[in-house]
Amino acid sequence: MHSQVADLIETLINDEHSPESVNKAISELTPDDVALALESIPLVQRQQAWANIKQANRLDILVEMRGESRQLLLKELDDTEIETLFTDVDAEDLLEITDSLPDRLVDIALNQMDNKQREYYQQGIVYDDDVVGRWIDHDLLIASQSIRTSEALRLLKKETPSYTDMVYLVNRTGRWVGCVKFDKLFKAQGHEPISSLIDEECTFIDAEAELTKAAEQLERSGLVALPVVDKNFILLGRFHAGLAMETWRLEHEAQQMATAGLNEESDLFAPVKRSAATRGIWLGINLLTAFLASAFIGMFEATLQQVVALAVLMPVVASMGGIAGSQTLTLIVRGLALGQITRSNLKSLLSKELKVGGLNGILWAIVIGVVTLWWFENPMLGLVIGLAIIVNIFMAALSGVLIPVLLDKLRIDPALSGSVILTTVTDIAGFVAFLGLGTLLLI
């Protein structure tokens, strides 16, 4: 499939963008593959390609595009084109893209919906975008708890939605009662009440649950879908394996982009000024932390003037601390994301990481100390850098555990901010330890 996307990118860049060539190229691709290809070409060529895509395919492709790419594309369309585009939009698609649409376009889309879809939209928009209640699937098999098995079996003669292996039961007020798996339904007698077939192990997902928590709950259940209910136990819809896989994919991508201070919704070919502004903020934050580290180095200016070798070896101390800290930080961020780290095990985890840091610190202090002795023929300099390495790696282990935990408590994404803070801490700790010991032992 990746080769087909690459072929489409080449077609969109090199061809004359005739409707025939564009639609022939996308005919065998899924909407998300086409969206990926469009995001991989410059804006001018993207707009030309978009103009030649069949109207029936446009909405599905637009929904799969990243937020910034979607905004840049919609910016070039007039109201008539947008009304046509949103003619067949449903609640789930509109909820997917609503954050990247101005209110005016959301109103246009809502006016195209039927009452049922508009109700679904209003039901989902009250939830935050990281909560499962916003992303539920409304295409599910529902039956009253009062019917018999024979009546329930008639439901299965209709088209069965994807990721479906059970019927959800509700009472007269729409409250969820339980689930009945297909295998039990097929084995039961037609006259049996369906309520007698309820699977006691089937649970539900609270609509207020975070998406990642819902995905974990679904995975543990061993089922392909679970019902989603609100605080009054009203059945709102379901959360299925397809949504769970999409949740994990987006979570992984967001964490990868966050480590560089970027947003997963960023467009590859966004305007230069917009991209520069987004990245410039991150560079500014890093600049402030660099000046902070430099200020601590400046406190030992006299020492550096007398022992030039210290300046030569400073990057070694900073690098070792930074790498050791990032290893611990990555481990802790993953543990927080999976819910593995709690108040009860934090002390044990911290103790383990400090022991690892201490062991690695001693080992590499010996190696670096010997190399320094051979290089500069100064035993005391080897001792100074060895001690500084131990201090810095130990500090890196301590910071790698405490910084992400503290950021998580403050509801700040540790994957986004943790690495910057950790690098600053290890740099300052390493420089102060190295230059401080150098001042005491070499001068």
From TrEMBL:
Record bears the keyword Isomerase: no
Chief location: membrane
Domain Magnesium transporter MgtE intracellular: 29-132
InterPro entries per UniProt: CBS_dom_sf, Mg_transptr_MgtE_intracell_dom, SLC41_membr_dom, SLC41_membr_dom_sf
Subcellular location: Membrane
SUPFAM superfamilies: CBS-domain pair, MgtE membrane domain-like, MgtE N-terminal domain-like
Cleavable signal peptide: none
Membrane topology label: Multi-pass membrane protein
Pfam families listed in its UniProt record: MgtE, MgtE_N
Similarity section: Belongs to the SLC41A transporter family.
Protein name as annotated: Magnesium transporter
Organism expressing this protein natively: Marinomonas colpomeniae
